[in-house]
Amino acid sequence: EAGVVQSPRYKIIEKKQPVAFWCNPISGHNTLYWYLQNLGQGPELLIRYENEEAVDDSQLPKDRFSAERLKGVDSTLKIQPAELGDSAVYLCASSLRNSGGAGEQFFGPGTRLTVL
Amino acid sequence: GQSLEQPSEVTAVEGAIVQINCTYQTSGFYGLSWYQQHDGGAPTFLSYNALDGLEETGRFSSFLSRSDSYGYLLLQELQMKDSASYFCAVRDGYNKLIFGAGTRLAVHP
């Protein structure tokens, strides 16, 4: 079974440029998450989707970040314009419906973004 | 506020036992998870405790005391491949995972 797929794996851009990250979750997983991970820190949730609905986007900086999950499968996270402080690893994760149990989340390898 | 505390670094030798502690303060609590992350890799799920007590999975065990807002991950018979970062994560009252800053484990021969 394929895991969570993310692309690109690495991205280097200049500040003020736009950037987009793509995620394909594990087949059948209703819930999709985007996390930001700074060096030496744990992942921090940006947004959580249940199917195509964003049910928690309270930590998403909406002035420059946007996300979508059309048809409740793939998702795209966009930053426009990027700032130096956005340099981090952007992780996508998926899980079965986020409603109890261990709620195990399956993470993709992440996209390492460097903003120059 | 919400916070999780865990040691930043732990060092041990092959074959030894190491315990990584985690204390937490969150808005609501469903359970405590542990994730492993190798450098440049994806976090992978290790264990989950919703009730007090010890859960054992092979060489790894996880413990939770809800009354003390405390848990730990116990790694036995350490191997070089166990060198990684280990994160505790709380499922809070909003069903959100809040991660600690991680503990970097270095296993030496």
Structure report:
The complex is a heterodimer of chains A (116) and B (109). By secondary structure, chain A is mainly β. In chain A, the strands form two sheets. In chain A, strands 2, 4, 5, 6, 9, 10 and 11 form a seven-stranded mixed beta sheet that branches. Chain A is globular, with a radius of gyration of 13 Å. The mean pLDDT of chain A is 93. Chain B is mainly β and 109 residues long. In chain B, 0% of the residues lie in helices and 58% in strands. Chain B is globular. The model of chain B has no long low-confidence stretch (mean pLDDT 94). Chains A and B meet through strand 5 and strand 10 of A and strand 5 and strand 9 of B.
Q: Any key phrases for this structure?
A:
heterodimer; A: 116 residues; mainly beta; four-stranded antiparallel sheet; 11 strands; globular; B: 109 residues; six-stranded mixed sheet; five-stranded antiparallel sheet
Give a brief outline of the structure:
With 116 residues, chain A is mainly β.
